[in-house]
Amino acid sequence: MLKRLLNRVPSASKLPQRLMIYFSIIALAIGLTLYISMLSLMQWIEDEVNQHELEVSAPFAISLFQQGAKQPLKIGLYVEAYHSTELIPEKYGDLSQFPNNFSGEVVDRGATGLFHEVTNFKLFEDDALNQHEEIFLYRSEFELEGVMQPLYLIMPAESVELSHSEWQSINLFVLSFIGVLFLLFGFAIHKLSRRLVEPVEQLSKQLKSPATHKTFSVPPQSAAEFSELANSLNHYRQQNEMMIKQEQAFARYASHELRTPITVISGAAKLQEQNDAAAFQARQRDRIMRAAHDMQHTVDALLGLVKQEKGTDNKQFRTLEKNEVEQIIAPLSHLANSKQITLELDFREPPLLKPSPAVLRMLLTNLISNAINASDSGKISISIDKRAIGITDTGRGLNSSENDSNNGHGLGLLIVDSLCQRYQWQFSLEDIAPTGCRARLSFPVAETH
């Protein structure tokens, strides 16, 4: 159970709280360590200075005792020197227990050492517990009139150390300073963590939102990587929507393109049953062969598009001949003539292309059929050079033809655009003045060796 709780993955919204908890624990540990270290360092420096003063006063005290100075001997403002334990005031306690060459502070009924002083430090003094006065003691020996005598140098701690009120002020200041730093760093950590987590929360909410056609976004102050992530999500969404549209268009387009030749074949087969004349039978067979041929081209192109074949860059260039274009235009002439539209081919220069004849037939058939459907009469010009294929009509213009969802050939524009992207072609469709529309397929010029 405990392991499962520890390994549970938190949500992004919970991360700032968890970061604050971790930071608080670490900050408190660091603050406590700094507080104890600083307190110990200050008291150690204070003790070292006072002990050093006693040690340097010892030779001077010995010299005065040897010259006949009386006890207690005053050295400076606070140092008292003794060589007889009987004369040491009772308030200092029994100092004979300390060994020779002892130098240190005597606190709390004879206990010594900085560790004891730090661990027993109190912000507020309790005089009832301090029966003996705290002192700095230096214990040594010297020769007086041929006899070794003990030497005691005593300095009252209260005279040379910071008072308890001063220690209280210092400690309250340090604790307040550490507390302010803790609050400031905590606020900074919280703001920084919120700034890091907020873009993730916003993107997560946008991903879960049922709204369609939305744009992913992050707050302006977010890191550059989050903006790049939002842009990548927007690009992915656009590509996904485009693929869905292409798949839908492909299904409708394939249905439209295949239904027509199937209808022709079915109708011609039924007509053959009604007339046994050789000429009539030959015309129906010719209709069936043309429809089957058209269907074969359409199926080849559609299958090539569905397979999403890779390696189109490795395909060899081929030269587009004029008769191939004429064969593509020929089946469309009947539809154009029925609307009194003239198809003109201006084959200026044979280009080098990678698309197969089936793919090129699909491209040109779609564009020419769009031009015919968008025109009631007039002329459609097909111009070809080594850089582009252009199809210009004098019809109703772009707005009335491109978005006509009821027109099967209009659906094919998505297929045309997909094929052009595949072969690194540029497809453009624009209105021209005064009436009409121009479709253009631009392709890179192949290098000849």
Q: Could you give a quick summary of the protein structure above?
A:
This protein is of the alpha+beta class and 449 residues long.
* Quaternary structure of the protein: single chain
**Radius of gyration based on Cα positions:** 50 Å
Total number of helical segments?
10
Termini separation comes to 74 Å
Overall pLDDT level: 78
Which strands sit side by side, in order, in the main sheet? 1-2-6-5-3-4
Biggest β-sheet description: 6 strands, antiparallel
* Strand percentage: 15-25%
By DSSP, the count of extended strands is: 13
Report the order of strands and helices.
Answer: HHEEEEHEEHHHHEHEEHEEHEE
Any low-confidence stretches, pLDDT <50, length ≥5?
Answer: 114-130, 401-409
Helix content: 40-55%
Structural class call reads: alpha+beta
Spatial shape: rod-shaped
Structure description:
With 449 residues, the chain is an alpha+beta fold. It is 54% helix and 16% strand. The chain has helices spanning 2-7, 15-66, 114-119, 157-160, 164-208, 224-272, 278-307, 322-338, 357-373, 408-422, and strands at 73-75, 79-82, 103-107, 111-112, 135-144, 147-156, 318-319, 341-347, 352-353, 378-384, 388-393, 426-431, 437-442. The strands form three sheets. It has a six-stranded antiparallel beta sheet with strand order 1-2-6-5-3-4. A five-stranded mixed beta sheet has the order 8-10-11-13-12. The protein is rod-shaped and about 160 Å long.
